[in-house]
Design brief:
Strand content: 35-45%
Radius of gyration: 19 Å
Number of helices: 1
Shape: elongated
Number of strands: 5
Structural class: mainly beta
Distance between the termini: 34 Å
Strand order of the largest sheet: 1-2-5-4-3
Mean pLDDT: 82
Low-confidence stretches: none
């Protein structure tokens, strides 16, 4: 099973402080909590194997070539978080919440650009 990692992501924000820690462009660096899956390939393979064992893989009646696995990447900024996710398209209802895997989640305030 693939593990999660926890860290701090340093981002550049527009500054509200005119004096301390501000670059000449009026921006400042701040840390943002981050949770992430460190090995995307390992996680994709893990989920493919799980879906294969459960008989859930499909090539959508030939829409996806038999030799291919399609992966959809996405992101969502909502409220105070930003989430990056992926979905394996080779399953029934690939956009279902049950088929969505969050890769990264960070706290991102509304002023984050």
């Amino acid at each position: 099973m693939v593990s999660l990692s926890i860290g701090i992501l340093v981002l550049l924000f527009p500054s509200t402080k005119p004096d301390t820690g501000v670059s000449s462009s009026g921006e400042e660096f701040r840390g943002a909590p981050l949770v992430f899956i460190p090995d995307l390939i390992l996680k994709v393979v893990e989920l493919l194997e799980k879906n294969d064992r459960a008989g859930r893989l499909t090539w959508h009646n030939g829409v996806i070539p038999a030799s291919e696995i399609w992966i959809k990447l996405g992101g969502d900024k909502g409220g105070r978080t930003f989430k990056m996710n992926f979905q394996i398209v080779n399953v029934v209802s690939p956009s279902s919440v049950n088929n969505t895997c969050v890769l990264r989640l960070m706290i991102a305030t509304p002023t984050c650009t």
